[in-house]
């Protein structure tokens, strides 16, 4: 492994260990982060959960950003761990646990993603694993058909689109209108890109 890649891998592992420690102790961190647009962001957060990201093939951090409003003390931020430049553990800790799921629910769109799953070749079991990171509600419609509602927000949408498109023919998107629009746009973009590549060859 080249020296620069080895250094980046070591930084990633070091940051990951620090996040796990802070999460376990409900400890604030001073985090320096590079956004996808290239902007450096410097904030205090409370690491709440680490999840694997299919889109980036990396782990992402669900972090709580303190707010001044008493009614909403924390704002949810989703950060790519590989974009974290440095982390400093602070002495400040949360006095009591925060219900992360309640914080996430406040960010959801009004309409969930509605999927129809035909349970052939263990499609239902595969879907439950495939969408394990999301809050969902699954109902049996008939002998081999299920309806699955997946609750998501704007920060989750791109990754959810990728996961839906990669699942296979046993899954059909029924709604919401917003998700269907985003799905059509992404399919059209892929179709145009495929046509351009075909022309070049």
Can you offer a commentary on this structure?
With 201 residues, the chain is an alpha+beta fold. The chain has helices at 3-25, 100-105, 123-130, 154-165, 177-200; strands at 27-34, 40-53, 58-66, 74-80, 84-93, 113-118, 135-142, 145-151, 171-175. The protein has a five-stranded antiparallel β-sheet.
Mean pLDDT: 91
Terminal Cα span: 33 Å
How many DSSP-defined strands? 9
Main sheet characteristics: 5 strands, antiparallel
What is the percent of helical residues?
25-40%
* Residue windows where pLDDT falls under 50 for at least 5 positions: none
| Beta-strand proportion | 35-45%
Number of helices: 5
List the helices and strands and how they pair.
Blueprint: H1 3-25, E1 27-34, E2 40-53, E3 58-66, E4 74-80, E5 84-93, H2 100-105, E6 113-118, H3 123-130, E7 135-142, E8 145-151, H4 154-165, E9 171-175, H5 177-200
Antiparallel strand pairs: 1-2, 1-5, 2-3, 3-4, 6-8, 6-9, 7-8
Summarize the structure.
With 201 residues, this protein is α+β, with helices and mostly antiparallel strands. Helix content is 36%, strand content 37%. The chain has helices spanning 3-25, 100-105, 123-130, 154-165, 177-200, and strands spanning 27-34, 40-53, 58-66, 74-80, 84-93, 113-118, 135-142, 145-151, 171-175.
Throw out a few tags for this protein.
alpha+beta; five-stranded antiparallel sheet; four-stranded antiparallel sheet; 5 helices
């Amino acid at each position: 492994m080249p020296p620069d890649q080895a250094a980046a891998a070591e930084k990633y592992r070091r940051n990951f260990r620090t996040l796990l420690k802070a999460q376990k102790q409900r400890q604030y961190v001073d985090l320096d982060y590079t956004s996808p647009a290239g902007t450096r962001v410097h904030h205090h957060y409370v690491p709440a959960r680490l999840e694997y990201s299919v889109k980036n093939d990396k782990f992402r951090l669900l972090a709580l950003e303190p707010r001044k409003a008493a009614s909403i003390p924390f704002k949810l931020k989703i950060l790519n761990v590989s974009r974290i430049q440095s982390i400093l553990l602070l002495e400040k800790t949360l006095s009591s646990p925060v219900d992360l799921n309640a914080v996430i629910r406040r960010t959801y769109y009004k309409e969930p993603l509605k999927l129809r799953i035909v349970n052939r070749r263990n499609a239902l079991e595969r879907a439950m694993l495939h969408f394990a990171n999301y809050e969902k509600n699954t109902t049996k419609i008939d002998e081999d058909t299920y309806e699955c509602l997946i609750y998501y927000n704007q920060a989750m949408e791109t990754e959810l689109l990728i996961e839906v498109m990669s699942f296979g023919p046993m899954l059909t998107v029924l709604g919401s209108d917003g998700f269907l629009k985003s799905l059509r746009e992404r399919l059209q973009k892929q179709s145009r890109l495929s046509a351009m590549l075909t022309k070049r060859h």
